[in-house]
Amino acid sequence: MDLPLLKELNEDRARRRAAILVTHLSDGSQRLVRVDDDHASDPLAEEFARRFRSGKSGTVETEQGDAFLTVFLPAPRLVIIGAVHISQALVPMAEIAGLDVTVIDPRTAFASEERFPGSSLRAEWPEDVLKEAPLDPYTAVAAVTHDPKIDDFPLMEALNTGCFYVGALGSRKTHGKRLERFREAGLDPALFERLDAPIGLDIGAASPEEIAVAVLGAVIKALRKPPEPAA
């Protein structure tokens, strides 16, 4: 790889920007394709879409001969809003599943080292944390505080950013009121359908531990499975 291309790739990885390095095996020529590039007219567009989702590198056939696609995806993150009982169960499970987990809660009575030992815990307001570590399409957000003052901002930010999963705790009535606030705040209603609420897979979960399992299942499903086509 030539140095300018290597520099571009390193910059993309530092910014958590997904990219694919295309290497034509016949002559060794290379090009870099980013996830947010407009490559709809590229002969490999469908292949790029699959690889950006799966993260798997491999050889593909092209009109110019075989090419090797080296896929560079940011490590998937899970940002949990709320240092509650569900979060205590969810953090270790999500870490075992390979997610980089951050818990955010400005309420220091909940956000303590004793309750979340060894975890990436931020006892600050989400607005402040997300300025420093912005959300991106390879981040999942799970809001579980039941407090609009804490949950609403990161949820709207996650929807606007295109996070791969956005979920919120609460009943359908609570969710209806949430959407009313989002409309008043100017959030595009077209984004509402991306919000998983009540949060998690519908497995009849009742305890905090069971709800954590349901949330993790929903996050992994959103990360690994392509969206189901509209009916």
UniProtKB/TrEMBL annotation:
Gene3D superfamilies named among the record's database cross-references: NAD(P)-binding Rossmann-like Domain (3.40.50.720)
Record Pfam families: XdhC_C
All residue ranges annotated as the XdhC Rossmann domain in the record: 78-217
Protein's UniProt name: XdhC family protein
